[in-house]
Design brief:
Low-confidence stretches: 167-173, 524-528
Structural class: alpha/beta
CATH topology of the largest domain: Glucose Oxidase, domain 1
Helix content: 40-55%
Mean pLDDT: 82
CATH class of the largest domain: Alpha Beta
CATH superfamily of the largest domain: Phosphohistidine domain
Number of helices: 28
Number of domains: 3
Strand content: 15-25%
Distance between the termini: 71 Å
Radius of gyration: 30 Å
Shape: elongated
Number of strands: 22
Strand order of the largest sheet: 7-14-13-9-10-11-12-8
């Protein structure tokens, strides 16, 4: 069996003469289906093109010729419509076995059993389908599918040049309206910014796909790789963040992709099939996009985005086409627009002019998010319809704090935005003045305010905000941004740097919480195929099974805390025996290190996270074993209400100020106090002034929150009479009002509590 490259090259050599000929487009397509069918020994070869929103049979070898220009399928209809809608390959030994199979009697296809089809892609959209069929039931081999995909890429050039598909399908997207509009999205990096819309990069269209000289194309790619790697080295060398941080690992991983020999080898194989350098890069990029659509793991998807970012850079270099907006410089305050960005792409922009970023994709753990946070640039992700809504140069008002971007705002919108920005800056200045002021209520109660962290840089928030310590250090973040399992020495270095930055303020390290929606590509877990990974094999459950992972982390933490107090917290404890096993593992590592004469922590304080409601029923067993208990309100709330917090339809189904939640939390206070156990909240609930006020009303006086929430909460605490609130809360929980949120808000307004 010939290789995929040889199979494709055989077809492309014959197609080259057809495409160069002066015959009509229909005649060319008729010749194309004959060539492809003969080359791969398939009895049927058909081309469907997207015309006026439907897929029309345009040419066929093997089906009834009377069906040409007669058989039409909607997107999503039948096998051909499914391929075009999903932009995916189908390869079936029995076509009728697919749930979307539709029989078209006019084609005479009923005697053909096997079916394979690939999308014909133009500017990342399917503009048609290339399909083959065979009488005998059989799956087409990988080399045949690869050859079809390569040919489909060449066909997209022929089809576009002949004007055979809808202009709307291949043309550049244009805003459908010039009216003011608000676009919602996902807050990735908090902040506000105003500026003109600038698209990160123009669309690059590969115009010539079939190579005249394969060796010359290969040399062009080699030269482009050298230039791209020089650019990446320069950009990362000149990047300035002010201090070291987890983004350094992001950049190192990105550079690793730039030097990946496997990637360059795949491009060379595509050139061997007869493609030009540009077409070969685009062909490999298409495969990457298809893999991205199949990936549920957000971390692995982020890695694929990095590779696509590098592919775009390589394509611009080899084609000599226009570069990104960064190459021309930002001449005014700018909000950058992109489907997605790689970290090096963002670093090329002038931070003085870059006021924000709006992405069509993006995630909280994406590399660009980490780098943007280090740069102090607000980012809004997962914004739909960017190119249909925003034109180059449009004025944008970005408020990622409220998860919105306003396009072409009215004068009233601008005025409101500027007022909000001024208030925000004024409040930030006022909160900054509270940095050294302790959070003490009007009746003299000291509330402990700590911050949540996950990066080395986050420790700097202690000095900036005057927080009492780090109440939750998410150790898994180092694992999530690494391309391989972090070695114990690297973990130890991070933990020691965080402890050094904190000084005499406590740091609570949560042991690694992976699994569920935080899967690692280099660590296969049972959660990969779970229907409900949030309640599956994750966190402590996974760590106890993979105890080698936890042992390495335990040694790293114990070594890092030598001569100091080490606070260790285990996530998602469901039953006391799980805590016992985790603590025993840590104690065994402490003994192992001590037996070798190494310096140990002066004390190890152990705690647990209460996220699983079942644990509350065994507090009498757990509390004597621990020094502190931290409530993770994010998971706890979704488990109590059986409502997935990631499902927008259920977003209103649970309220942190629901009597159900508050009564549950109130039950924890007295037992913890009686056992001498510190009780705190480290979920998002504690970072909102009204919700934090309610927690204090329950008797919870330790909150671990985002650094940005410390100032607002200090202001709230210092304006609060905690005793009066507790009296009121007892009555409200005994006989809950219909809307406790409204009641609390009214009480705070009457009592003069600062909730802004």
């Amino acid at each position: 069996m010939p290789s995929a490259a040889a199979s494709a090259r055989e077809i492309l050599v014959r197609l080259h003469d057809v495409m160069a000929g002066r015959t009509a487009p229909q005649a060319k397509l008729n010749a194309v289906v004959q060539i492809i069918g003969e080359a791969i020994g398939s009895e049927v070869c058909s081309i469907y093109l997207l015309r006026e929103g439907v897929l029309e049979l345009y040419a066929t070898r093997g089906l009834a010729q009377e069906a040409v220009h007669v058989t039409k399928l909607a997107l999503g209809e039948g096998l051909v419509g499914t391929i075009a809608e999903d932009v995916e390959v189908l390869n079936l030994d029995e076509a009728t076995s697919h749930p979307n199979f539709v029989h078209n009697p006019e084609t005479g296809e009923e005697r053909f059993h096997s079916f394979a089809g690939v999308p014909i892609i133009r500017r990342e959209r399917a503009v048609g389908v290339l399909a083959v069929q065979h009488v005998d039931p059989r799956r087409y081999q990988d080399v045949e599918i690869e050859a079809l995909q390569t040919v489909a890429m060449v066909l997209s050039e022929l089809i576009a040049n002949a004007g055979l598909v809808d202009v709307a399908t291949t043309g550049a997207d244009r805003p459908q309206s010039t009216a003011s509009v608000r676009l919602p999205g996902l807050k990735l990096v908090e902040g506000m910014g105003a500026g003109c819309a600038v698209y990160h990069q123009p669309r690059i269209t590969v115009e010539h796909t079939v190579a005249e000289d394969i060796d010359a194309e290969r040399h062009r790619v080699y030269a482009a790789f050298d230039k791209m790697r020089e650019q990446i080295d320069r950009i990362t060398r000149e990047a300035e963040f002010g201090m070291a941080g987890e983004h350094d690992e992001v950049i190192a991983t990105y550079k690793m992709f730039a030097y990946d020999e496997g990637w360059s080898r795949r491009i060379n194989e595509a050139i061997d099939s007869g493609l030009t350098a540009e077409a070969a890069i685009e062909r490999v990029q298409q495969r990457t996009r298809q893999r991205m659509r199949q990936i549920d793991d957000p971390l692995l998807a982020d890695r694929m985005h990095d590779l696509e970012d590098l592919s775009n850079r390589l394509l611009r270099i080899v084609s000599g086409q226009m570069g990104t907006a960064a190459q021309f410089g930002l001449r005014r305050d700018t909000i950058l627009i992109a489907r997605n960005l790689g970290p090096a792409e963002l670093l090329e922009y002038d931070k003085r002019r870059l006021k924000g970023v709006v992405l069509g994709e993006g995630s909280l753990t994406a590399h660009v998010t980490i780098v943007a946070r280090a740069m102090g640039v607000p980012v809004l992700g997962r914004v739909a319809g960017l190119r249909r809504t925003i034109a180059e140069g449009d004025l944008l008002l970005l408020d990622s704090t409220e998860s919105n971007v306003f396009v072409r705002p009215s004068a009233a919108m601008e005025e409101a935005f500027e007022s909000k920005l001024a208030v925000r800056q004024k409040r930030k200045a006022a909160y900054a003045r509270l940095r050294d002021v302790p959070p003490v209520t009007k009746d003299g109660e000291r509330i402990t305010l700590m911050v949540n962290a996950g990066l080395r840089d986050d420790a700097a928030a202690l000095d900036l905000t005057g927080a009492d310590g780090i109440g939750l250090f998410r150790t898994e973040f180092q694992f999530l941004v690494s391309s391989s399992l972090p070695q114990r020495e690297r973990q130890q270095r991070l933990y020691k740097e965080v402890l050094d930055a904190a000084g005499d303020r406590p740091v609570v390290f949560r042991t690694v919480d992976i699994g569920g929606d935080k899967a690692l590509p280099y660590l296969v877990t049972a959660s990969a195929d779970e229907e409900n990974p949030a309640m599956g094999w994750r966190a402590l459950r996974l760590a106890l099974e993979r105890d080698g992972l936890m042992k390495a982390q335990a040694r790293a933490l114990i070594d890092a805390a030598a001569g100091r107090t080490l606070n260790v917290m285990f996530p998602m404890v469901s039953e006391p025996w799980e805590f016992d096993e985790a603590k025993a593992l840590f104690e065994a590592q402490r003994a192992w290190i001590g037996a070798r004469g190494k310096r140990l922590p002066t004390e190890i304080r152990y705690g647990a996270m209460l996220e699983v409601p079942a644990l509350a029923e065994q507090l009498d067993i757990l509390l004597p074993k621990i020094q502190f208990l931290s409530v993770g309100t994010n998971d706890l709330t979704q488990f109590l209400f059986a409502a997935d917090r990631a499902n927008p339809k259920l977003a209103e189904r649970y309220d942190w100020l629901s009597p159900s939640i508050l009564r549950f939390l109130a039950r924890l206070v007295a037992p913890a106090r009686a056992a001498g156990v510190d009780l705190g909240v480290c979920g998002e609930m504690g970072g909102r002034p009204l919700e934090a006020m309610a927690l204090i009303g329950l008797g919870i006086d330790r909150l671990s929150i985002t650094p940005a929430a410390v100032g607002p909460l200090k202001a709230m605490v210092r304006s609060l009479d905690a005793g009066a609130l507790r009296t009121a809360m007892t009555a409200w929980l005994a006989h809950p009002p219909r809307d406790l949120r409204d009641v609390l808000t009214a009480w705070a307004a009457e009592a003069g509590v600062e909730l802004a």
